[in-house]
Every structure is written in structure tokens, then in C-alpha cells.
Design a protein that fits this description.
Two copies of one chain form a homodimer. Chain A has 324 residues and is of the alpha/beta class. Chain A has 14 helices and eight strands. The longest helix of chain A has 15 residues. The relative contact order of chain A is 0.14.
């Protein structure tokens, strides 16, 4: 609002990675490919295509290579892939990923639980990947988990988050994503962290990754925008989840986000109707209802006719209004 | 955030009126009464107890008198009731309602559809009620529907909203509620309307009533707070709905709202744990799942233990870290 520095917002859809990885069923490769192709044509800035992790660890994304190779690549879309280590980096580069999205957590307990390493060990591994990848022209983004709190440790101090961001920025990465991995972020906190980050590193691409676990997803987006952030991760249909909150909703929903931003006069470059078409294909693809709300309620601009009896009621009211 | 003028936020829970009125089953009077009594003890500022409309029109609230008479009345809680006309006002005053909440729509089509009168006819009726009620010490609030858009007409000009508010303020009402009846509001619009209202009428109590139909509920609250608003309607469990959006969520959820505001350091006076206890009783009361998310995901402060294998993994990582 007052602090919106530009009206362009860049959106990275993570549904086929962050969403599909927790689905209990394996989405067939060709269906992943056609969804990604459809998403490419909506005008999204970036798509997180897959994850080059061990197929044993995440069987849902065991077809990472096939998906990367079979999708149509549009020139204006960045096709990124999650990469946890050097082995994943080699795989992603062989598939010509435009960007490697490297991950670690700023919470020691979460990093140990999720990646089975200390944070310093994760950092050293990723630093190697960065050094190696610097010889190619691949883009490098680092997603830091639990930047707004850890479900096991609780608060994560802001300076701890900034310290890990700084270490990666010093290695020359292109972007940092601050992730609210389990939906613990709240607006004043978001504003404070984003403001601090932007004051320190105005030239590093800063992306925010929110979950809507406790209903604050779009409020957090608003707070981030007010702090000058213009890049967001979001998930088609709101797919994704949080292992600590069964039954809770997952990532913020891409079409709900685009819908709100469009109403606010911000330019996402995304064709909302095309995006809604993609979202409508999800329930049959994943076999369950999806959290996204615009797909159920329609856009604000989708008007409804008055009820059939309207003219009669209106006429009766007019007659009554004329009576003394 | 920057514009927050005071840290006190007043919350009016409307679940037993706005929520229950669309439930297909009749909630037994004694269950309504015990829920209201429990809500009273959570520290809410106001509870919309019922609606003095025709029992034929809204059978779910046909027990308005019994409910009003049987509830325990705590001195710090305002017990308000929806009143559509003079007949409703008489009924509410006989039950000693603390406040009459008068309703009309700022959209002509919506007013005709919902109240079967022209807006000017509604205004004249409500003006009579106000003149009559002024002789008592009952508080008077006017809830204006469709202030952020009409599902049939579309945009409702801001000056139209302000014109109807002004007419009621000139009659000396205590408060105005700007209602986003079908969840069409978006943050920049909220900020603009709330700012305009507060600049015109700084001394009139201004309440905002949002629905979460398209996921923007708490983002709109944030925008309103930034414009200096400190009163909100919300519904326990997020009960309520929108006839134009079947399957979509209803009013913003009281416990999700209190949860967010508490994290932001704002004081709602509400005991969140007590409120969550109330929310947990709803699914069995109404016979279906509720949209509220904090009740499912837990509060941000509800931490989780690491998995059982954590110590082993941590130890293995420590050993590896010591290796050269």
C-alpha cells in the first residue's frame, strides 16, 4: 500500500514440488508434465518443477529427470528445481534446470530432523554446490526453512535468520527465500524481518514462502508487500501441507494470491482465468478437495443474477414507495 | 503496524446469529445458551446473541426471546441483537438487549433481494426505530451490507457507502458496521474506505465485518487495523456463509483472528484457550467440520517434540562433524 515500491509481483508456483511431494499417491509423470505445461502458459514467473532428492526419500518425485526433460520450456519462465546436495545438483544440471533451489533450515532441530545434518554441515554441503555451480550459468537460490519459527524449537531469532542468509549471500547466490515452513509467521514479524533483510541486501532477490496453516497466509503477503517484497512462492490450489498440523491447509494458494493482488492493482503477469482452469483439474488429479477458495467462490468480479422473483418484489416495493 | 493507534481491539462474536441462522438444523435453545455463556467468559467485548426477525423467515433463530432471557449477562459484555424493523425493536427491548443492531444494504439490488424493500424504505423504517429507541438507553449500531461490493451489482461506489453511513450518523447512532457481506473486500479498498470513514467521523464507533470467502479475511483485518480500525465482527469457528458461494468459507473466524492479533501484540481481552475450547464444541453442535484453522493446527506457540529417532540422528551428525 503506501510502501509498495513497484506494482510488479513475481510468483513461483511450487505445487508440483511442495504440493505433490506429500500426496500419498504417485501423480503419473505425463500428468505432471501437462500440468506444468499449462502452468507455464498462465504467465507465472517461475515454476518449481521437481526435487532432485533421493527417490527413496520422496517417491512422489522419483520421476524428476523425466519431468524436467519432457516439459515444454517457455523463455519467460524460470524452471527451478529443489536440490539438497551435490548429487542433486549434478542431476539438475544434467536436466538443464534454470535454477537450483538449495535448502536448509535456520533451526538446528528442524535441520537435523528434516535433513539429518547439523546446520553447519548443510551449509558446507551447499557451499560446495554453489562453488561448483558458479562455473555454469545456472541461477542459485537458497530457501531457508523455519525463518518465522520452528515447530519444535519455537522462536528463531531474527538475527539467526539474517546470519544464515548473509553466509549464502557472501557466496554470491542470486536469491534467498525466507520460508514459513509450518505456517507460524504473523504480519508484524514478517514486516520486521523483510524490512531488515531489504535494508541489508537491497540487490539480492528476496522471495517469501508462506503457508496458510493458521489462516494468516495472505495477511503475511500483505505485510511483506508493504515491506517492499515482490516475490512469493505459492502453490496451485493451496496444495502442500505441514506434517505438524494434520488437516490444516498448506502453502498459500496461487490463485487466491493472484486474485487478491490483481484486485489491489498489482501486476503478477498471470492470467487468473487460465490459472483457475489449472486449479480446477487438481481435485481429480490428487483425489481430494483442495484448500483454494477462489476456485469455489469465484472471482469477486463473477457476478450473480438476482433471484427469479426479483422483478416482482422490486415492483411491489416501487408501488409501496408511491403510496402516501 | 505503523498506523496502529492503540493496542486494544474489540471483538464482536456473531456465530450464534450470523453462523447459526444458515445452519440447516435447529440448534436447541439450551445449547445456544450454554455456548453464549461460555463465550461471555472468554473476554469478548460483544456477542450478537440472536436476530429479532420473523421466525418464518429465519426458523433457526425462532427462539430469540428464550435465548435472550436465559443467557447469563456479564457486565463487561455487550449483548446485541439484530433488528430489522420496529416490531423487532420492541421484541429486543422487551428482552433488555444492550444494543440493537439495525441492518440494511447499501446496494439497491441486494436490499430488495434480502429485505424486499428499496434502500430508502429500509432507511425510513430504521429511522423510526432509531427515533423510538432514543428514548431508552439502548445502544444503536447500524450494519450496512455490501459495503465492498454487491454480488449482483458489482462495485458499490465508496461515496454511496459513506452517504448511507452519514444519514445514520446524523440520526445519532452509536456505531456503524461496514459489512463485506459476501467476501468481496480486498486490502487496498478496505484501507481506502476505512481511512475515509475515520477522517469524516472519528468519534463514531466503526466496526468491520469481513467474510473469508476468497481467503482475504485476515489480510483485510490487517489493512483495517492499519487504517486505525479497532472493532471487528468475527464468528467462532468461522461459521456463517455466503449464499452466492456454496462450499466457500463464511465469516472470518474469531479464534483465528484473536490468534493473529495476539501474535501481533494487540490486546483483544480474549482468553484464546477458552475461545478454542468453545470452538472445539462446534462440530458436534452443527454436525459438520468448521472452517477455523487454529483449532486444527494449534497455536503457533503449541510446540511439538522432535521425532523419537531424533537423538540418534543428532548423535550421528555430531560424530560426523568431528571427522576430518
Amino acid at each position: 500500500m503506501s510502501n509498495i515500491s513497484s506494482n510488479r509481483i513475481f510468483i513461483n508456483d511450487v505445487a508440483v514440488r511442495d504440493g505433490f511431494q506429500i500426496e500419498p499417491i504417485f501423480i503419473p509423470t505425463e500428468q505432471k508434465v501437462s500440468l506444468i505445461n499449462a502452468l507455464s502458459r498462465t504467465g507465472l514467473s517461475k515454476i518449481e518443477v521437481t526435487s532432485f532428492t533421493s527417490p527413496q526419500a520422496i517417491p512422489a518425485l522419483a520421476d524428476a529427470e523425466e519431468v524436467m526433460k519432457e516439459i515444454e520450456r517457455l523463455p519467460d519462465v524460470i524452471y527451478t528445481a529443489l536440490v539438497p546436495n551435490m548429487r542433486g545438483a549434478h542431476r539438475a544440471l544434467r536436466c538443464n534446470a534454470d535454477e537450483l533451489n538449495l535448502v536448509m533450515s535456520v533451526s538446528e532441530t528442524h535441520n537435523l530432523t528434516n535433513l539429518r545434518m547439523q546446520r553447519s554441515q548443510s551449509f558446507d554441503q551447499l557451499a560446495e554446490v554453489i562453488a561448483f555451480a558458479k562455473s555454469s550459468d545456472v541461477l542459485l537460490n537458497v530457501s531457508l526453512s523455519c525463518c518465522f519459527g520452528c515447530p519444535m524449537e519455537g522462536d528463531v531469532p531474527m538475527k539467526e535468520v539474517l546470519r544464515w542468509a548473509e553466509r549464502f549471500i557472501e557466496l554470491g547466490v542470486d536469491g534467498i527465500t525466507l520460508c514459513d515452513t509450518t505456517g507460524m509467521a504473523y504480519p508484524t514479524q514478517v514486516r520486521e524481518l523483510c524490512t531488515a533483510f531489504r535494508e541489508l541486501w537491497g540487490n539480492t532477490e528476496l522471495t517469501l514462502h508462506f503457508h496458510n496453516t493458521r489462516g494468516m497466509g495472505l495477511a503475511n503477503v500483505l505485510a511483506a508487500i508493504e515491506a517492499g517484497v515482490n516475490r512469493f512462492d505459492a502453490s496451485l490450489g493451496g496444495l502442500g501441507g505441514c506434517p505438524y498440523a494434520p488437516g490444516a491447509t498448506g502453502n498459500i494458494c496461487t490463485e487466491d494470491l493472484v486474485h487478491m493482488l490483481s484486485l489491489m492493482g498489482l501486476n503478477t503477469g498471470v492470467d487468473l482465468d487460465a490459472l483457475l482452469m489449472c486449479a480446477r483439474t487438481l481435485p481429480s488429479l490428487v483425489g481430494h478437495d483442495i484448500p483454494g477458495q477462489t476456485v469455489k467462490a469465484g472471482k469477486v468480479s463473477d457476478l450473480h443474477p438476482p433471484p427469479a422473483w426479483f422483478d416482482e418484489v422490486a415492483q411491489r416495493a416501487r408501488v409501496k414507495a408511491l403510496q402516501p
